[in-house]
Amino acid sequence: MEGGVDDEVGGDGDRLSSLPENIIRHILSFLGSVDIVRASAVSRKWRYIWVSMPYLCVDIPYRMKFNDFVGWVLMFRNRLKSLELCSVMFMDSLSLANFVSSCPHLENLSLDYCSFVDDNIIEITAASLKDLSFILPKVNMHFKGPVRREQTIKFGLKVACPNLVSLKVVNLRSHEFSFQEMNSLQNLSMDLDRHCYDLEVQQCCHALSKMLKGVCNVKALDVSEVFLEDLHRVHLAVDAECFAPSFNNLKSLTLRINNTDFNKHSLINILDCSPNLEAIKLFLRQTGCFRWTNHNSPWKIPNRTSSCLKYHLKIVELFQVGDDKYEIDLVRFFLENGHVLQKMRISWVFRSPLFSNPVYSNGNTDEFISEVMKFPRSSPNIALTFVEPEKLDRML
């Protein structure tokens, strides 16, 4: 880049090289990794600047070229801290383990929709890792077309990361998972695939106990109804010699449940297991199924008070609350039993009259709010807020 540039501007006679390195890195951050490496030929000062780039994005459609380029790049990135792999196929978990172990400074690892050909158990061990996200491809069990073998394997997961702070696991189709040496874990998000729900009670107790021993110290927990159902099965297995679940440090709980088949006792169990819980979010996911049976047998939650409801729970947020009687009972339960509640936020969604309770059908907002406002409250200081669905998008 010469021409019209004084020699004093830069050693190579170019203006860009005279810029501070942080400015150059910012400019290069808008390019793909291949282009960043190519840009190293522009100036002698830029020759190795790609090595110090804080973020590299590699998207090469050809598998062999992708492997060669990534392997070559990582050879020069011996202080790699963050890595995101999307739709990468590993021959086995050993190849992933060897790769992770070769990155001694790796702190953030994201494996999104990656597949493993020859292994059922995926092991991740890294002393430096602090944030791990593991999202498996979701299998549509109703799909009639051809499916690759690696898409149907019920992968298990074994994680041993002593400094891990945050863990996210999505679409795991097996109960073969264990979390070891993870006393530093603060945040856990787990959405198990329902198709893994095929174990006997004893097997369920054993599998869940292995997992809970490694994550019982978390402060924030985000789980789906499959986890709650497993926890409830363990609670009912009074004769089983299994680990008694307890989340004494848990402060924030997020539940994502299908309101068509949610077991009310599962909610009671998780509240009992979390004596110091301060905030809870419930997302009632709609399945689109016919729900007439719920109207014939209303969902009634037992009137009982756990430790967190009596002494610690201050915030309750309910999202996509419908106009069914059993969902209204859920609102009633928290109002009647939350002794120290300070804030309850309710986001409602009105459904087609085909699925709605006739009492609250046709989206009668005033009638819905009026009914809720009549419920008795244990906390005298609670602030009750109603949020319409269109305003919910701006909150999330």
TrEMBL record:
F-box domain sequence ranges: 13-49
InterPro entries in the cross-refs: F-box-like_dom_sf, F-box_dom, F-box_SCFL_complex_component, FBD, LRR_At1g61320_AtMIF1, LRR_dom_sf
PROSITE patterns to which the protein is assigned, alphabetical: FBOX (PS50181)
Pfam family, one: F-box
Entry protein name: F-box domain-containing protein
